[in-house]
Amino acid sequence: MTSENVVTVDDFSVVYDVDPPVRAVQHVSLSIRRGEILGLAGESGCGKTTLAYGVQRLLKPPAVISSGTATFHDADSGRDVDLFDLDAAQMRAFRWDKVSMVFQGAMNALNPVVNIGKQLDDVFLTHRPGLSASERREECAQLLDLVGVGRDRLRSYPHELSGGMRQRVMIAMALSLKPQLMIMDEPTTALDVLVQREILQQISDLRTQFGFSVVFITHDLPLLLEISDRIAVMRAGRIVELDTAENIYRRPRHEYTRTLLSSFPSLTGDRGDFVRGRGEGAA
To answer: Quick check: 282 pLDDT over 70?
Structure first.
């Protein structure tokens, strides 16, 4: 029987082995439900990105996973996969196929000297070696059509695209193998509000169309309130509150959540007093 969760994280901790040690993620337990958008909120430095990278085993020294487990519940095979039990080759095959990631800063994530078509093609060449060149080319073209960039941009280089188009290309790349979970790290950073709105709507539409789960990482709590099914609030490496978006907004239980909600201005009424939080931990 397929689990209602796509990933379950239990007692997960990450320490940066420096002097003195930095406890970036501390005993986090979290389940990501199948088909949901889970928002991961908190100030810069609270451990959001470290958690996402750690679960995918993308961290580099001096980061050390000091405790915990991460289990992927594969809907295709019906089996549970211990992500920390996979060897390097198995983990390489697992990424993008089962779990993909849209990294923060699309211009930095894309290779500036390789055209968009070749970068998309590399995903299929690595993970779907049985496809012919013409089949891979058509898959790449369909992906660009899907995210609204257009197949005529296959020969374009990253610098020839706008910031919004580059981010759409990253979303296309993350969707290429039809993963069950997509992790998005600040995907709308540095985009103007109109393009941000278009990207968010597209993420929501694609999630509905393909049924994958999304972990959306950002410090922008109001944005998460709008798009998320549930929100996990992190502070100093710990999840201090996890609830539905509606409950987080209307009935926040933790003082830090209330502080985050108070740190954004209202569009109507009095300006009020803004509260500045105190971040701890490591990003």
So the answer is: no
Beta-bridge partner residues of 231: 39, 243
More confident residue, 199 or 257: 257
**Identity (one letter) of the amino acid at 104?**
Q
In total, how many domains does the chain have? 1
Element (H, E) at 201: helix 193-210
81 inside domain: no
CA nearest to 108, candidates 148, 54, 168, 167: 167
Domain holding 133, by residue range, is 99-178
> Residue 283's pLDDT band (boundaries 50, 70, 90)?
very low
Of the candidates 201, 262, 213, the one whose C-alpha atom is nearest the C-alpha of residue 73 is 213
Read off the pLDDT band of 281 (50, 70, 90).
Answer: very low
Write b or e for each residue in 229-265: b if 16 or more Cβ atoms lie within 10 A of its Cβ, otherwise e: bbbbbbbbbbbbbbbebeebbeebebebbebbbeeee
Is residue 281 left, alpha or beta, with left meaning phi > 0 and alpha meaning psi from -120 to 50?
left
Sign of CA dihedral 73, 204, 149, 107: negative
Structure pTM?
0.90
